[in-house]
Amino acid sequence: MDPRNRLIRELVPVLKPELKRAKEYIMVAGMDPERFMKQARMAVVNYFNDRKDKTEKYELGIGGTYIVWFCKILENWKALVSTVVPDGRYYEVTYNGRGKTTYLDVYQRMDNFATPDKDEVI
User: How far is Cα 34 from Cα 5, in angstroms, rounded to an integer?
Assistant: First the structure.
């Protein structure tokens, strides 16, 4: 038997209960990442729809948003969210768990250029 397979077979029964307890802790503490990602997407939907041009007929829904990147550390989480709207914007949603506050930052791409590496050390 391959030693790696043997190690995996020995570790799975040991780690499975620990992973289950960790997931239960996260859920009990109200820190469900799926909920936060949905909340971040809804924050972007609400921002977009509240500030769009009144002549536009397009209404952004949650299906028109997607998570580009997500991170959770301790009580805080951050998500980078984008939309299917080709406006060059992306949204950074940050949740402060201690203050129970969500912040939304909106960015728009202004320029994109390449800078080649130089061999000299600065």
Answer: 32
